[in-house]
Amino acid sequence: MKQSTLGYVAISFSMLFWGASFVWTKQLLNAQFPVFTIVFFRLLIASVVFVSFFKLSGKLQKVQRKDWKWFLLLALFEPFLYFIGEDFGLKYSSASFAAVIIALIPIIVAITMHFVEGEQLHRNLLFGAIVSVIGISVMTFGKGSDVFFTVKGLLLLCVALIAAAGYSVLLARLLQTYSPVTVTTIQNFVAIFFYLPFVLIFDIKDWGGMHWNFETVFSLFALALLCSAGAYMLYSYAAKHIGITRLTVFTNAIPIVTIIFAALLGQESFTLQKFIGIVIVVAGVIWSQTDHKDSMKTANKL
After folding, report:
1. Largest CA-CA distance found in the chain, in angstroms, rounded
2. Torsional class of 218: left (φ above 0), alpha (ψ -120 to 50), beta (otherwise)
3. CA nearest 299: which of 163, 110, 111, 172?
4. What is the pTM of this model?
5. Does the pLDDT value for residue 126 go beyond 60?
6. Is 300's pLDDT higher than 50?
7. 197-243: per-residue pLDDT in tens?
8. pLDDT, tens only, 237-272
9. Could you tell me which residues are beta bridge partners of residue 93?
10. 190 and 71 in contact (C-beta within 8 Å)?
11. Is the pLDDT reported for residue 294 higher than 50?
12. Does the pLDDT at position 295 exceed 60?
């Protein structure tokens, strides 16, 4: 099987895991788990499992001293700044508005990679990304949708956009030297220390109210192993063989998975409007992958 084909298989599973993550996160939030604590535990579990397994198997590469600053910056962009921007942006804006802003990531990344790395801007990719944004809008806006945002909410969501763009540039560069396994493992390990102060300052006082049971433990391990570890590793693998700019359009398929999972669990209804939106998003994603070859002129600037 061609590596590009395996890349598409990898990104499909990555989107599946990330789409399901919203359902597992909601279960933990309902069990009174604070936001920073959820991310901290999923990173901690993922790091312990991945570092132990890949170190023992010899698949974890040694990071050169000069590259540690880039790994620190990578983890700062994602998951730290991205989740800060997205999660807290949702506090000051509606979910429908946030979904559309986050759906702009493929366009922002394509433009950033063009100006920073010299990659070509392909019309099919941009057109497909725009179509997918329209599909997200159809899925989220409609009768009964409470659409609102504040300046603070918009600025926080823009932080998520900037973080996604910065992460994409650094990921493309680091994958020239390091394997997806190494990049994902080090990224998660470093991110623990970004979240730890926030857990100690804001969350630890609420730990007594967290409800521990089989469902919450399962949700934590699913988020850790499938989303923080597995999905990011699969995403990095796909980025290495497909290209960052083409890859990011797939992130607009995440809401589709979330809607389907939520509908299956009875958390959300599946309407004709959502179905039409899903069809438009899928069409946009497919269109973005056709009739062009991404320029992989990623200079080794590390």
Report:
1. 55
2. alpha
3. 172
4. 0.87
5. yes
6. no
7. 999 999 999 999 999 999 999 999 999 999 999 999 999 999 999 88
8. 999 998 898 889 998 988 888 888 877 877 677 888
9. 149
10. yes
11. no
12. no
> How far apart (Å, rounded) are the C-alpha atoms in residues 99 and 90?
9
DSSP secondary structure of the chain: --HHHHHHHHHHHHHHHHHHHHHHHHHHHHTT--HHHHHHHHHHHHHHHHHHHHHHTT-PPPPPGGGHHHHHHHHIIIIIIHHHHHHHHGGGB-HHHHHHHHTTHHHHHHHHHHHHH-----HHHHHHHHHHHHHHHHHH-STT----B-HHHHHHHHHHHHHHHHHHHHHHHHTTTS-HHHHHHHHHHHHHHHHHHHIIIIIGGGGGG---SHHHHHHHHHIIIIIIIIIHHHHHHHHHHH-HHHHHGGGGGHHHHHHHHHHHTTSS---HHHHHHHHHHHHHHHHHTSS-----------
Beta-carbon count within 10 A of 202 CB: 13
Contact 170, 77 (CB under 8 A): yes
User: Does the structure show a pLDDT above 80 at 169?
Assistant: yes
CA angle (33, 190, 211) in 5-degree steps: 10
Both tokens of 122, joined, read 């392909």
Determine the residue type at 215: E
Decide if 25 contacts 223 (C-beta within 8 A): yes
Cβ neighbourhood burial of 57 (10 Å; 0-12, 13-18, 19+): exposed
Q: Answer yes or no: is pLDDT of 296 > 70.
A: no
Cα 200–chain centre separation: 25
Q: What percent of the chain has pLDDT over 70?
A: 93
CA distance 65 to 47: 20
